[in-house]
Amino acid sequence: MSKIAIISQPDQGVLIDVGGCASMQEAVSHLSSTLQVSSQFWKGVNVALNLGDLELTSTQVAHILALAKGVGVYPYQVFAQQPLTRGALLEHGVILGDGKPMTLPAMTIKVPENPQEDEWVDESVNIDEESTVTVFYEPSENQLITEDVPSDGPEAQVDFAPKAETSPPSTSSPKSEKTEKNSKSAKAKEKVEGSVHAGVMYLRQTLRSGQSVSHQGHLVIIGDVNPGAEVVADGDITVWGALRGIARAGVGGNNDAEIRALRLQPIQIRIGESFARSPDKNRLHYDNHHGPETARVVDGKIKVFKFNPQF
Amino acid sequence: MSGRVIVITSGKGGVGKTTASANIGVALANTGASVCLVDMDIGLRNLDILMGLENRVVYNLVDVVEERCKLRQALVKDKRMPNLNLLPAAQTRDKTAVDADQMKKLCEELKSMFDFVLIDSPAGIESGFQNAIAGAEEAIVITTPEMSAVRDADRIIGLLEARKDEITQYRLVLNRLRPKMVANADMMGVDDVLEILSIKLLGVVPEDEDIIISTNKGEPVSGTDNTRSGLAFRNIARRLRGEEVPFMDLEAKNDTWVTKIVNFFNPVRV
């Protein structure tokens, strides 16, 4: 069990699990680093806390609650096993969680295993190169379309220019123009039919080596995912930045999941039951990239395409 | 089969434990032995990068210990040599993820599968180091010819000596030696280091730019010919297998006639 886990589910909010910690000190240090690293993330989120088997006194519980309060987190329920801790929590008016807290989704990655003892060496290779591995950065199959974006004429430019230059302060006409435009954009918005997916986790943070995020639903990261970091989701993974670590989308068998990034330079990606790894040469330079790309499963193999917003 | 479990350790960080582990592993595998490299630097894993196997890691040591997978599933076979395997460390965990008893059990299991089990220890003398030496029967102490590294190596040897019942043999590898600096008396020589540590010498590895190139490529130098450091690691592997290999002459290039005469009487050895 890891020392700290953040698990989020569409209907239950987010669970911070420090049940794996052996002591109060450990729990506090993990908790404070987690809460502070991504404080924006916690705004308006239902947070539950799992203290596991930790035995905490009333003062220690108060300490933990104060820590959470510092970044605006008020756990709506707290899970605890030890009677002492439960008593202390009740003292502070915290609602105790019933039953078991939510757990991480089970990850099933098929790894060949050979029952025959004498042939095991071949089977110890955990990636079946011939059948499932696609090496990245063979030329993308989609050609990048380089047409000019059609412009709406001079009118459209007004919006982007500084206000002082284009709109005199005391005229009524720009106002009406503006309202007209607003209604236009509102109409355009109505047309958009997005897939309404409640479970999107939005993380504004660069994930560094050793950090990992797991989410049941789609995962959006505004920042980089560095080598050694790991992002896991049972929906899509979108990285507005460089994806250089490990990404597993469609955990639980969703082969339609996609992984996309501004710079897709991962060590490994897995989508559903498919697997792909980077070429065998260690990467020294990260500056040559192919622009925004999407990885998806085609005929059981992961393929990388130039990002093309036509679905 | 009952193989030998050898821990590679140093105390100080950055002296070349992981580089030595990778190179000795490759050199041993080149002699025909079956080898398993175990990365014990949980949370700061590097050995997979040096071996160029980072992109093949699926499961790791902690997954094995916590029984999320079988040992054989976690072993990554080297892409060049089928008799060389890597058991990678976990990157998203820390040193407390395993304990000494679990390591002993793991080493017992690995010992029955391989001729050599090389454990790459983390820096320091805390729990990570204690776990790394828990299942070991031999140790290779790495140091560089610097005061601080030698001091830390001495501390490590003291800790190893305290476990004489389990760790029966420990030998020294002097890494990153610059013969020219030694000749100019600007660096501790082999004899100076041995004088302090009074420990059996397993090998001397000269400072070599090829190491940096090979590290970045993910291809240990001992697998390729024509490098001085690669030869030094191959000699170490042969000595580990019980061969008597003479220490090779490590004379600096562009010597003046004075240093040549000095070196003639006081040769620096590999």
Largest interface (C-beta under 8 Å) = A-B, 31 and 32 residues
> Any idea what the shape of chain A is?
elongated
Number of strand elements of chain B: 8
Question: Helix and strand succession of chain A?
Answer: EEHEHEHHHHHHEEEEEEEEEEE
CATH class of chain B: Alpha Beta
Low-confidence stretches of chain A: 105-196
Helix and strand element order of chain B: EHEHHHEEHEHEHEHHEHHH
Overview of the molecule:
The complex is a heterodimer of chains A (311) and B (270). Chain A folds into two domains: 5-91, 2-Layer Sandwich (Transcription Regulator spoIIAA), CATH 3.30.750; 106-170 and 197-311, Pectate Lyase C-like, CATH 2.160.20. In chain A, 23% of the residues lie in helices and 23% in strands. Chain A has eight helices and 15 strands. In chain A, the strands form three sheets. Chain A has a six-stranded mixed sheet with strand order 5-7-9-11-14-15, with no helix packed on it. In chain A, strands 6-8-10-12-13 form a five-stranded mixed sheet, with no helix packed on it. In chain A, helix 1 packs parallel to helix 2. The model of chain A is unreliable at 105-196 (pLDDT under 50). Chain B is globular, with a radius of gyration of 18 Å. With 270 residues, chain B is α/β, with parallel strands linked by helices. Chain B has an eight-stranded mixed sheet with strand order 3-4-2-5-1-6-7-8, with helices on both faces. Chain B has a single domain (4-265), classed as 3-Layer(aba) Sandwich (Rossmann fold). The longest helix of chain B is centred in the middle third of the chain and has 15 residues, at 147-161. Chain B has helices spanning 17-30, 47-50, 61-65, 71-74, 100-111, 127-134, 147-161, 179-183, 190-197, 209-217, 228-240, 257-265, and strands at residues 4-9, 35-39, 76-77, 84-87, 116-120, 138-143, 169-177, 200-206. Chain B starts with a strand and ends in a 5-residue tail after the last helix.
